[in-house]
Amino acid sequence: MSPWANLGRLRVVETAAGAVATDKLVANPALAVSLQGLVKSLRLGSSGGLDLEMVLTTLERTAFGLIAAMKGDTPRSDDFSDTQSSSYLLLKDTRLKLDASRYALPALTSAAATLPTAQGAGPQGRRARWRRLLGHRR
Predict the structure, then answer these.
(1) Which residues have C-beta within 8 Å of that of residue 64, sequence separation ≥ 6?
(2) Is residue 4 part of a domain?
(3) Is residue 7 part of a domain?
(4) Which of 29, 49, 50, 123 could tie 80 with a disulfide, CB 3.0–4.6 Å?
(5) How much is the average pLDDT of 33-59?
(6) Residue 135 to residues 47, 83, 89, Cα–Cα distance (Å)
(7) 28-47 vs 83-100: helix axis angle to the nearest 10?
(8) Torsion angles phi and psi, residue 70, rounded to 5
(9) What is residue 137's predicted lDDT score, i.e. its pLDDT?
(10) Which residue range is the domain that position 61 belongs to?
(11) Domains identified in the chain, total number
(12) How confident is the model at residue 126 (pLDDT cuts 50, 70, 90)?
């Protein structure tokens, strides 16, 4: 079962409002920040001469292990065709969280600042950027 559909990770809440609060206000910001952490780890690993598999294997034992398992096939396969709509939805949700919070959320603010760049590149631009980033020669 994929990490998204893991029944052991589901939580029952008492109300619809509780479900919305749990999913939209709590879980999605963690996804945005985790994705940014994954990208930063891949960049640092590449800068240090590590290949993609070594970085992803190292991340298995860290806080970014789940996101690396969920998203690792994208750079592995060099197929970014399904990432466009998800980045738009993630940015929309991220902006809603920033607007709703009465506290500063620097990690989420940083994640929101990087998503438009990824969106503007489109699948071809992201593919080229990942290749350069990870030293791929295809």
Answers:
(1) 34, 37, 38, 41
(2) no
(3) no
(4) 123
(5) 90
(6) 10, 21, 29
(7) 120
(8) -75, -40
(9) 44
(10) 15-133
(11) 1
(12) low
User: Is 48 within a domain?
Assistant: yes
User: What is the reported pLDDT for 94?
Assistant: 85
- As a whole number of angstroms, the distance between CA 69 and CA 67 comes to 5
DSSP state of 103: S
For the stretch 88-91, contacts whose Cβ atoms lie closer than 8 Å and that sit 24 or more positions apart, written own/partner, are 88/119, 90/28, 90/31, 90/32, 90/35, 90/115, 91/115, 91/116, 91/119
Q: How far apart are CA 131 and CA 138, in angstroms?
A: 8
Those residues with Cβ within 8 angstroms of residue 71's Cβ, 6 or more apart along the chain or in another chain: 35, 38
Calpha distance 37→65 (Å, rounded): 11
- One-letter amino acid at 122 equals G
**Which are the contacts of 76, defined by CB distance < 8 A and separation ≥ 6?**
52, 56
